[in-house]
Amino acid sequence: xxxxxxxxxxxxxxxxxxxxxxxxxxxxxxxxxxxxxxxxxxxxxxxxxxxxxxxxxxxxxxxxxxxxxxxxxxxxxxxxxxxxxxxxxxxxxxxxxxxxxxxxxxxxxxxxxxxxxxxxxxxxxxxxxxxxxxxxxxxxxxxxxxxxxxxxxxxxxxxxxxxxxxxxxxxxxxxxxxxxxxxxxxxxxxxxxxxxxxxxxxxxxxxxxxxxxxxxxxxxxxxxxxxxxxxxxxxxxxxxxxxxxxxxxxxxxxxxxxxxxxxxxxxxxxxxxxxxxxxxxxxxxxxxxxxxxxxxxxxxxxxxxxxxxxxxxxxxxxxxxxxxxxxxxxxxxxxxxxxxxxxxxxxxxxxxxxxxxxxxxxxxxxxxxxxxxxxxxxxxxxxxxxxxxxxxxxxxxxxxxxxxxxxxxxxxxxxxxxxxxxxxxxxxxxxxxxxxxxxxxxxxxxxxxxxxxxxxxxxxxxxxxxxxxxxxxxxxxxxxxxxxxxxxxxxxxxxxxxxxxxxxxxxxxxxxxxxxxxxxxxxxxxxxxxxxxxxxxxxxxxxxxxxxxxxxxxxxxxxxxxxxxxxxxxxxxxxxxxxxxxxxxxxxxxxxxxxxxxxxxxxxxxxxxxxxxx
Length: 614
Ligand code: M6R
What we know:
By secondary structure, the protein is an alpha/beta fold. The protein contains 20 helices and 27 strands. The protein folds into three domains: about 5-245, Glutamine Phosphoribosylpyrophosphate, subunit 1, domain 1, CATH 3.60.20; about 250-455, Rossmann fold (3-Layer(aba) Sandwich), CATH 3.40.50.10490; about 455-614, Glucose-6-phosphate isomerase like protein, domain 1 (Rossmann fold), CATH 3.40.50. It has an eight-stranded antiparallel sheet, with helices on one face. The chain has a seven-stranded antiparallel sheet with strand order 5-6-7-8-12-13-14. Helix 3 crosses helix 4, helix 14 (about 410-425) packs antiparallel against helix 15 and helix 16 packs across helix 20 (about 580-595). The termini are close together. The mean pLDDT is about 95. Bound molecules: 5-amino-5-deoxy-1-O-phosphono-D-mannitol.
């Protein structure tokens, strides 16, 4: 969850590292720190609690010189977020500094052993054991830094992306990874390291994604060297990474989340580009062409994901079962990986993840592969761990999502799931031509319809003012809009800290109805689809108990206007595409309520964008 960044070259490292940390702040923001090795061979470490701006302020009057440095923005796992626990951590002699993203599971044993050998620990973190162990092994074995890092990592159980600098090796950064992301950027006589491409891309497009248990030995004036823990050399695979810097800025919006909500029409167009062919009424997904038999032969689909991605997975279930006639299970990756699941060769597992780095989803992918399943990834972050671990997949191509609350990624995921379901259904002859052509034609109209929904932003902002001080919210939906209800509730709770629950509307009377009184706002997705009348009845049940109904209705629906307290009208679309339309007002409602409450919308408390620890 933390963000790491490093630089070695001819320039002053400090501004590059600070800018890099700001780009990575979405990964964690409870403390930050930097280590710089200056020309006098002094290793200066500065750390502060809170955001990168605090660190900048703290370092203002300090020596920030040095052409080699590493920096870190933290999401605390072991040890409270304070200055001492912030990274970088020094070794006992203060000759070595290290940053780390991940969790060292056996840190307590390692710490005990090192303490017995007389080493003094400063922090409560798991991370500090790595740097202390590296120095201990360096001295004990009278070896070089690279070997000491390899040895230390072979003792470590857990996940890591680390970077190490050493006063005795002033021209070297050693970096390594296992289960936490790490990329090396190759410039002109300079190198960058980071948790993802965003802090690097403005300096170089040439990047090497480091694989599990690989160590990068980065020496000034030499080529990048990659070895594994047994010192076998691996040829670096240099990739060209294309990323528009503008996508990493707020572009005039007050928050990334609002920008990303408004980007959705363009994102969906991008996601469909080259895949949906309106002129020929067809859908082409290269993964389906390359792995046709595997996918068409699936006896069962298992969708694995977490959070918002799990909600889009639920929509996938409805799509695959309706149009492909394949049974589908949707499971939280964290549950799947720790129960005795039954997965085999006839199963296709679909892993859905915006970041492509979610630890539980990645581990579930590895497990499913071990058991012989064919694994398909639906991810956003190009080159991230899940797309690299899966057999095939489709990127959603919605551009970097910076706001911690996922918005445009949800739309991209649903769009890919729609395209995959349609293409697979067609290949299996499971869908009628009428349905197939109708859905393709309507899919192409979604961006325009999304734009119409976005025009309601002001109205929704006014509505938000009325509900700013609510303590609870219930969200109800049925069919394809049940996952939308879940997603609406998740958005509200994560950024406004209001307790919110999503339910299938009919399930309400099995318990949650007891919560309804005249103070309970109930958001009902009540668009005109096959379940419309049923939802209207559920709404009447809420009204009878004086719940305050906010209804999402189809344009021109007069009937519900008489029942609900507030209505938000959305353009009508096919039922299976409704999530692409009905989720947007719920994203906006959550956003505006959080803004009214003065919350940090893009970086809500306790959360991080990429959950790389289990
Ligand atoms: O990167 P992923 O899609 O794998 O992330 C999964 C969840 O952590 C993520 O969707 C989370 O729930 C978001 N904060 C929701 O807005």
